[in-house]
Amino acid sequence: MTDTRAACLVRRDGEFLVVETISPSGGRSYRPPGRDVAPDEDPEDAVRTTFEDVLGVELEWLAPIGTFEDTVVFEADLGTAWPYTEEGFTVYDPEDGETTRLAWLHRDDFEKYGETLEPEGLLDEL
Q1: What sign has the CA pseudo-torsion 87, 89, 93, 94?
Q2: Given 2.40.50.140, 3.30.365.10, 3.90.79.10, 3.40.47.10, which CATH number is that of 5-125?
C-alpha cells in the first residue's frame, strides 16, 4: 500500500465530476475520482485505469494540476461520449468490490453554497 493517491478532475459546462463521500458524522464532501497508487505504478496510469475500469471511459488527455496533501491531481478530457445521462449515478468498482456515488456539481456548489471539495487547496487552483 502507498501513501499516494491519484485523482482526475473532469469538467463539463462549469461542473466537475466528483465522488461523494459521507463521513461517519454524516457530513458530505466531494473529491475527483481516483485511487491509491501502487508502489511501482505511475499516478497517470492509475487514473487512466480507474476511469476505464470503473467508469468505462477513456481519457483523451491528462495534464497535471498539482499535488495536494497526498493526492496527485490531473485534469482530463474524455475521449469518448459520456455514457451516463443522470446528474448523479452509482458505479461498481471491481478492484475493491464497492459502489461509489458520483455526481456533476457546479463550481458554485463549492464557492457559494459551501460544499467541500477535497483535497484541500484544489478549488483555489481551478
Answers
A1: negative
A2: 3.90.79.10
